[in-house]
Amino acid sequence: MINEFTPRVAIITGVTGQDGYYLATHLIEQGYQVIGTSRGQTCDKIPRLKNLIDRKLLFVETINLEDANAVGAIIDKHQPSMIYHLAGQSSVGISIQDPSGTFSSVVNTTYHLLEAIRQKSPASRIFVAGSSEIFGVNQKQPVTCTTPLNPQNPYAMAKAVAFNLVREFRRSHGIYACTGVLFSHESPLRSEHFVSQKIISGACAIAGGRQKKLHLGNLSLQRDWGWAPEYVEAMEKMLTRNDPSDFIIATGQMNQLEDFVAQAFSEVDLDWKKCVVIDKQFFRPNEGSHPSADMAHTTQHLGWTATTTMNGVVQKMVDACQNHMSECE
Known about the structure:
alpha/beta; Rossmann fold; UDP-galactose 4-epimerase, domain 1; seven-stranded parallel sheet; 11 helices
């Protein structure tokens, strides 16, 4: 496909997060002018971002995305070619504790951005980060973007509303808006309130004698784990197509959390069964198996396929964790 769309300015909301950093780096390498947004976190105190800021490759705007006027002002000011909306509360566990705050950070921010594009910069294109949580549990067939939604927790419900908002603005207002339905994707930048990083850090700490046991919840749940730096490439591809469309972004391979745990401990030469304690306090309601992803549409129409699956993800994360611990000694 010949692509005649030449992006100039890209805004990334949530630039301080895992995906924000990798996407900013990728877009900079592609020659884009990148503007990140932060709610107030001092980005120049985050080493990986400070390096980009100091080199004037990344410019950061402080903004509350839940303020419609502020969102309209920043879109009007920059007239971005593309917007990547990655900000928002992203933990299922936290959403159960704070459903109202989760809805506001996911739904309201998405609406404000879409409305700002409609009013201030209709040529802008927007990617909204979706979640496989919108499909719920126990789907009998691999899911696509046309699979009926069945959210089971406040985070999933908020993401389902945002998913439908994007479709409605695209249909009713002709905005180039699309959702990338992201399945679990990891990297060394994951915070430890995500179970993936908790497992990696715990395995490395036990191997190094700094921790005795790792307490985890339900190990029978299934996930599709991918590599975050690859997923941001799919995001860019979605905004540089001729026509907007929603896509599943996943590996298409499912594994149990037990498999993730077993490999993490194997990478540090330990038997996970001697190190892990199953703790009921970490079980969550409605935490059944996630659906598998049908990747045919993504492969055919987006031209993107994940190359790093769970085994590679765990290995890369353990290597990074061990290197970090070595540097700190």
